[in-house]
TrEMBL record:
Name of the protein in its database record: SAP domain-containing protein
Pfam family membership, one: SAP
Family affiliation: Belongs to the ku70 family.
Catalytic site: 25 (schiff-base intermediate with dna)
Superkingdom, taxonomy of origin: Eukaryota
GO function terms (MF aspect): ATP binding; damaged DNA binding; DNA helicase activity; double-stranded DNA binding; hydrolase activity; telomeric DNA binding
Residues spanning the signal sequence: none
Residue ranges constituting the SAP domain according to the UniProt record: 592-626
Lineage: Eukaryota, Viridiplantae, Streptophyta, Embryophyta, Tracheophyta
UniProt key word Nucleus: yes
GO-annotated cellular components: Ku70:Ku80 complex
């Protein structure tokens, strides 16, 4: 895709693109069917054990993995709907009444529905009674026309008929350790069954349903997708070679794989990028980094325990009656109240149509790190509504990389229109596949009103400002090298507060006796900090700054004496510097407001007054103390 040259793209671009653009409503939720192979081979094959060293069957690995995924999904994205379907089973339970397929669910829940606490709890223990109640058997045997894989895909497709492909992402996740499901059959029967199964998968894909395979490798035998599943998934050459290493043998590997596939990037919205009056393309936007917060609180009725609806009413202050018409708002102007309706206010605030409009290009050296107001948005072209968008995007992308420039554009969001910078990102590959995709990052730039200038560098006068000596810098450098975090990544750390919150919710919802233990990865490494080299570097740094008697005199030392000395020394310094100002004269002439917050705090600290609060509060505190 990235091999086209800019000149070639624009030279042949004779087709006029339409001026009417489509702002699509993106998929709002996911519909997922977990398709689990329940053949005897899944129960007979064991793989790397758990943390206690016990061997686990592939069936146990798949079920445990799905259960953990559901526990996370019910909290993070409870609006998504899932179905759990076993195939190669003795019993059957499905809409079409097909052999060898059993759809697992619980009472008061549809086959495809939102995950519930009861579903997770019963599914987590399904292995205990699976053989007795559901049973395991081979569904594809020589001399039989039964095809359990075909039936499973048919059932999954029927379950995913719910909802439109434009409003929901539909997916089938297939767990199996059998790379050749038709290996026991020969001749024309095998070819016919493979053909019908592949056609069934193709029919599902044409309906917007994606099929993904999570393979499990058997001991001493690698899962070989080329036997059958490569054709089902449409894998060829390089794609097939990259897929082969994805076959896993351990629970942790499968859990990580499933997490990556379940929490895939979703389009935030579709926008139109206007390059010139007669040239516009369609882009999809993706949120790469956003703060994760606990789910919204739902208010429940104290008697029925059902969700309640919140309504707001406006009451007239004069008559006390409820207002039936939409309220109007006003703005004071020259002693007159100018009234606006909600529609008029909305129209006034609407600066643009919501499209991305190109303004020009600048060298990358002009873009500063502090220009980034918030997390970037990733842009990628789409030809769904505007043909040729990808070609135009590639031309711009390659030209920006070649010339080391970024695009300046105006993003006309209806709520917060602002200038943005578009930075091209080249594709990054390694032996395992794609590390970073090609595309553009949209950086949100500040307006001149958003930039704050620094009023002062430090709180000391030039004569008393502390300076670090060469020895101080040398000791600090040695300490930093000793406690250097090698291969550090923010991806290694989970939010402990969120994890604790989720653990409490999970324990309450599933009636668990104990709250799952959460490892706080943000706690300092006490063992690492206690290494002789680190202790020595830290001690030398402290001595170089505070001297040999640091433990007895330091304001950082534990105990009341050290803290008292530090406060006393700070008060003495503030008293000394405070004498440089005529505070009474400043108060009489109303010039206290011209002083900085740090200068005002000198007076307050010198007289033992609180220093918390905004500048106006500090000034009032000084005036009160002076009796003004």
């Amino acid at each position: 895709m990235m091999e086209l040259e800019p000149d070639e793209v624009f030279a042949d671009d004779e087709d006029d693109l339409e001026n009417g653009f489509y702002q699509g409503k993106e998929a709002s939720k996911e519909l997922v069917v977990y398709l689990v192979d329940a053949s005897p081979k899944m129960f007979n094959t064991t793989c790397g054990g758990d943390i206690n060293g016990h061997d686990e069957t592939h069936f146990h690995v798949a079920v445990s993995c799905i259960a953990q995924s559901l526990k996370t999904q019910i909290i993070n994205r409870s609006y998504d709907e899932i179905a759990i379907c076993f195939f190669n089973t003795r019993e059957k339970k499905n809409i079409q009444d097909l052999n060898g397929v059993y759809v697992f669910t619980v009472a008061h829940r549809d086959y495809l529905d939102r995950p519930t606490a009861r579903l997770i709890k019963e599914f987590d223990s399904v292995q205990e009674s699976f053989i007795k109640q559901i049973g395991s058997q081979y569904g594809i045997l020589s001399g039989s026309r039964n095809n359990s894989l075909y039936n499973a895909l048919w059932v999954a497709q029927a379950l995913l008929r719910k909802g439109s492909a434009k409003t929901a992402d539909k997916r089938i996740l297939l767990f199996t350790n059998e790379d050749d499901p038709f290996g026991s059959i020969n001749g024309i029967t095998k070819k016919d069954m493979m053909r019908t199964t592949l056609q069934r998968a193709k029919d599902a894909q044409e309906l917007g349903i994606s099929i993904e395979l999570l393979p499990l490798s058997r001991p001493n035998e690698e899962f070989n997708a080329s036997h059958f599943y490569a054709e089902l998934l449409g894998l060829e050459d390089d794609d097939l070679n990259q897929f082969m290493p994805s076959a896993v043998m351990r629970f942790d590997d499968l859990k990580n794989q499933l997490r990556k596939r379940i929490f895939k990037k979703r389009k935030v919205r579709r926008i139109t990028f206007t390059i010139a009056n007669a040239l516009s393309i369609e882009l999809n936007t993706y949120a790469l980094i956003r703060p994760t917060v606990p789910g919204q609180i739902t208010w429940l009725d104290s008697v029925t325990n059902l969700p309640i609806k919140t309504e707001r009413s406006f009451v007239c202050t004069d008559t006390g009656t409820l207002l039936q018409e939409p309220p109007k708002r006003s703005q004071s102007y020259k002693n007159e109240e100018i009234k606006f309706s909600s529609y008029e206010l909305s129209d006034i605030k609407r600066v643009s149509t919501g499209h991305l409009r190109l303004l020009g290009f600048k060298p990358l050296s002009c873009l500063k790190d502090y220009h980034n107001l918030r997390p970037t948005t990733f842009l990628f072209p789409s030809d769904e509504e505007v043909a040729g968008s990808t070609c135009v995007f590639i031309a711009l992308h390659k030209s920006m990389l070649k010339l080391k420039r970024y695009a300046v554009a105006f993003y006309g969001s209806s709520t917060h229109p602002q200038l943005v910078a578009l930075i091209a990102q080249d594709e990054i590959l390694n032996a395992g596949g794609q590390v970073e995709p090609p595309g553009m990052h949209m950086i949100y730039l500040p307006y001149s009103d958003d930039i704050r200038q620094t009023d002062e560098v430090h709180t000391y006068t030039s004569s008393t400002a502390p300076r670090a000596t060469d020895d101080h810098v040398k000791r600090a450098t040695a300490l930093m090298r000793r406690i250097d975090l090698k291969e550090f990544s923010v991806c290694q750390f989970s939010n402990p507060a969120l994890q604790r919150h989720y653990a409490m919710v999970q324990a309450m919802a599933l009636d668990e006796d104990e709250v799952p233990e959460i490892a706080d990865e943000t706690v300092p490494d006490a063992e690492g900090m206690a290494r002789p080299g680190v202790v020595k570097a830290l001690e030398e740094f402290k001595v170089s700054i505070y001297g040999e008697n640091y433990e007895e005199e330091s304001g950082l030392a534990v105990g009341g004496k050290g803290n008292t000395l530090a406060k006393k020394r700070k008060a003495e310094d503030a008293t000394k510097e405070s004498t440089n100002y005529d505070w009474s004269d400043l108060a009489d002439n109303g010039r206290l407001k011209d002083k900085t917050v740090a200068e005002l705090k000198l007076y307050l600290t010198a007289h033992g007054l609180p220093v918390a609060g905004k500048k106006e509060l500090l000034i009032n505190r000084i005036l009160t103390h002076l009796g003004k």
